[in-house]
């Protein structure tokens, strides 16, 4: 308080204030103090003495400034105003200027900079860098002194303000925090020394050690440098320092790291791969390099394992794909920290594997996945001891692969055909499992994708009600039925069932039952047309002519042939064909199935085929099913399915093109093709090929939906 009063009295002295004398006396005091401090610093341990003298000087100068606040708020402020007025009154091109007094804080630091720092700068910076190198080498240093000296450089910048200068746009005064002293004198040399040190050390270490040991060393060094930076240098240098260290330790050796990453993936070396990921994540494009190697490796391994399958059947194919996905998904979790980039990379690799053609014209994955689902959902000896929870779990695994399938419309076609067979022949292992699978598909692809599948399920449920109503109708009309009759009434648009190109005459009892049902149904639903699908119908027949009684489940074709043998024991092929009206190929397949089951015996006499009832038939099973005739040829069935898919795609693409052009009216060729490809992938559940889109455009031009326009005929316009 005493110093403040004395300063106040000097500034308010009468008849003339002594403010200017006080200011210049303080300036001389600061200069003399700095010169004395410089002598002591040069004579002793530079870093230690500099740090001690700086602390005393910075504290003392702040005290003086606080005690001379009145001087700053009066005389110094007035002098600054006069300086500004003088500068504004000067000619724009003149270089005239007058001295402008600084505030006491900047004045004190400017004196220190001039009379101390600039004289010891070179030697002091050298000592600082040597201390930092000792710290890197594991030697003990006085970190507080090093940090204090470096901080003094920052304070010299952040506190000192240069005099105002005039620019052609007006007057400006540089703001604080430019750090030019710190950056020019220390930071540049520090970063250069750091780069040289780690370039030299990394090259030497790599020449004597393997990649795994080097990564451990590099990671440890980077962690040490982060701690060292926070302990010693200014925060403005953190990012520059980190980049320099990361470049010398990681980026400079990218080729070496890249060459080793696939071996770590092959050996599933989680520790080394995780360490490599952490290192590469630090540098620009480092993750991209690892990602490309990961995608390439997973794709190659997946295709190699698929190619190694001896027999390409659904179970082995799906289990192989699931094993590949599970293996590398676990690697992403454990080694790559479930990074979204690598999760997406695994998806990309799996999509490439699943949609690989494996030497065929088209990918086989949709068909094989659909058949695998059929194996799970179809009641069979293989599923007899499998509980429902396990089936549900396997169906969820199928959905993991299904999301990678590009041609989801092909899967839908095969799956719907197999579902139709399971529903018609009551072969589903569980209604809950069937419904769960349909729900999974709906969640993945939307309601429209599963609309027909759900309609199929609804038709089966409604058919049960129709059969109950028919039974009531038969009782009410006192109709005598020769057999127990039930039917499925199915919507033709929802069910993938095709009529067989053959005539067929039902046996009398079956014909009468069909007629009664048609009468009942037309009375209830006037205007609807029933088309009987006899090739997928089934009949239960009891065999009473043998020593044991047997119950046989057969198709309508098989049953019609067997019922003929109630009249006599032998028929020729021509007689059976005349009676049933089946075409030759369908009848041959039907008779072959009965001969193979040994219910009929086949003999050929004078190029005439004769079929005789096997009265000596015997079997260990009293109930069995004749299945051969029901099973279509797999290659033919697949060909039909793919043909139906291609036909649907053509209609879909044409409709998409018309819809786009109707909205846009005029569109260039490239834009139209791109838009169609995007919409087909997003909504059509398949990826359209560009030649296919071009072909559909040409077809629509021929149909006069579109026409070419523009000077080069490279645009299309919609024809209303």
From TrEMBL:
Pathway(s) of this molecule: Protein modification; protein ubiquitination
Domain (Cullin family profile) ranges: 364-595
Record's keyword terms, sorted: Isopeptide bond, Ubl conjugation, Ubl conjugation pathway
SMART domains: CULLIN, Cullin_Nedd8
MF GO annotations: ubiquitin protein ligase binding
Annotated PROSITE patterns: CULLIN_1, CULLIN_2
Pfam families per record: Cullin, Cullin_AB, Cullin_Nedd8
Keyword Ubl conjugation: yes
Entry annotated with the keyword Amino-acid biosynthesis: no
GO CC entries: cullin-RING ubiquitin ligase complex; nucleus
InterPro entries: Cullin, Cullin-like_AB, Cullin_CS, Cullin_homology, Cullin_homology_sf, Cullin_N, Cullin_neddylation_domain, Cullin_repeat-like_dom_sf
Family from the record: Belongs to the cullin family.
PANTHER family documented for this protein: CULLIN
Protein name: Cullin-5
């Amino acid at each position: 308080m005493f110093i403040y009063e004395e300063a106040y009295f000097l500034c308010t002295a009468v008849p003339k204030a002594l403010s200017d004398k006080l200011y210049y006396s303080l300036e001389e005091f600061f200069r003399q103090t700095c010169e004395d401090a410089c002598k002591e610093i040069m004579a002793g341990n530079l870093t230690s003495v500099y740090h001690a003298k700086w602390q005393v000087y910075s504290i003392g100068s702040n005290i003086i400034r606080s005690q001379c606040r009145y001087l700053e708020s009066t005389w110094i402020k007035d002098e600054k105003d006069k300086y500004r007025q003088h500068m504004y009154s000067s000619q724009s091109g003149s270089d005239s200027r007058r001295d402008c007094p600084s505030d006491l804080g900047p004045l004190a630091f400017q004196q220190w900079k001039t009379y101390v720092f600039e004289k010891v700068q070179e030697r002091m910076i050298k000592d600082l860098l040597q201390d930092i190198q000792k710290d890197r080498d594991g030697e003990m240093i006085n970190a507080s002194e090093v940090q204090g000296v470096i901080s003094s450089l920052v304070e010299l910048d952040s506190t000192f303000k240069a005099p105002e200068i005039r620019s052609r746009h007006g007057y400006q005064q540089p703001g604080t925090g430019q750090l030019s002293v710190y950056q020019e004198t220390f930071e540049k040399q520090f970063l250069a020394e750091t780069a040289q040190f780690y370039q030299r050390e990394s090259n030497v270490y790599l020449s004597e050690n393997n990649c795994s040991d080097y990564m451990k060393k590099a990671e440890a060094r980077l962690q040490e440098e982060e701690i060292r930076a926070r302990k010693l240098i200014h925060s403005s240098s953190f990012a520059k320092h980190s980049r320099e260290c990361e470049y010398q330790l990681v980026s400079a050796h990218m080729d070496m790291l890249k060459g080793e990453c696939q071996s770590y993936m092959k050996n599933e070396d989680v520790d080394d791969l995780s360490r490599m990921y952490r290192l590469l994540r630090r540098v620009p494009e480092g993750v991209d390099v690892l990602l490309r190697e990961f995608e390439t490796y997973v794709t190659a391994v997946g295709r190699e394992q698929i190619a190694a399958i001896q027999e390409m059947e659904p179970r082995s194919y799906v289990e192989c794909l699931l094993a590949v996905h599970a293996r590398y998904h676990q690697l992403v979790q454990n080694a790559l920290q479930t990074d979204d980039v690598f999760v997406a990379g695994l998806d990309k690799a799996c999509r490439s594997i699943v949609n690989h053609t494996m030497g065929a014209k088209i990918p086989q994955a949709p068909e094989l996945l659909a058949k695998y689902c059929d194996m799970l959902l179809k009641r069979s000896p293989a599923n007899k001891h499998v509980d429902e929870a396990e089936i549900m779990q396997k169906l969820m695994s199928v959905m993991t692969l299904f999301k990678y399938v590009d041609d989801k419309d092909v899967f839908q076609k095969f799956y719907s055909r197999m579902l139709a067979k399971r529903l018609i022949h009551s072969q589903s292992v569980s209604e809950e499992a069937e419904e769960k699978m349909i729900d999974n598909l709906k969640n993945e692809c939307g309601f429209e994708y599963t609309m027909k599948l759900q309609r199929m399920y609804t038709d089966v449920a409604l058919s049960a009600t129709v059969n109950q109503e028919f039974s009531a109708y038969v009782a009410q009309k006192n109709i005598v039925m020769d057999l127990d009759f039930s039917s499925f009434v199915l919507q033709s648009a929802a069910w993938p069932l095709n009529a067989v190109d053959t005539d067929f005459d039902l046996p009398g009892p079956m014909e009468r039952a069909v007629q009664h049902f048609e009468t009942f149904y037309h009375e209830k639903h006037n205007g609807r047309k029933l088309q009987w699908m006899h090739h997928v119908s089934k009949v239960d027949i009891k065999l009473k002519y043998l020593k044991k009684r047997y119950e046989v489940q057969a198709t309508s074709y098989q049953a019609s042939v067997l019922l003929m043998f109630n009249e006599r024991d032998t028929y020729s092929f021509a007689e059976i064909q005349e009676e049933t009206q089946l075409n030759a190929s369908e009848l041959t397949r039907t008779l072959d199935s009965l001969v193979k089951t040994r219910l009929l015996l086949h003999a050929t006499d004078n190029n005439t085929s004769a079929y005789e009832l096997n009265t000596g038939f015997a079997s260990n099973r009293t109930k069995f099913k004749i299945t051969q005739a029901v099973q279509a040829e797999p290659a033919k069935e697949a060909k039909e399915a793919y043909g139906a898919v291609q036909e649907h795609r053509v209609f879909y693409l044409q409709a998409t093109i018309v819809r786009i052009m109707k909205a846009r009216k005029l569109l260039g060729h490239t834009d139209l093709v791109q838009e169609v490809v995007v919409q087909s992938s997003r909504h059509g559940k398949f990826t359209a090929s560009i030649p296919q889109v071009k072909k559909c455009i040409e077809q629509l031009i021929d149909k006069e939906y579109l026409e070419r326009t523009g000077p080069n005929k490279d645009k299309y316009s919609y024809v209303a």
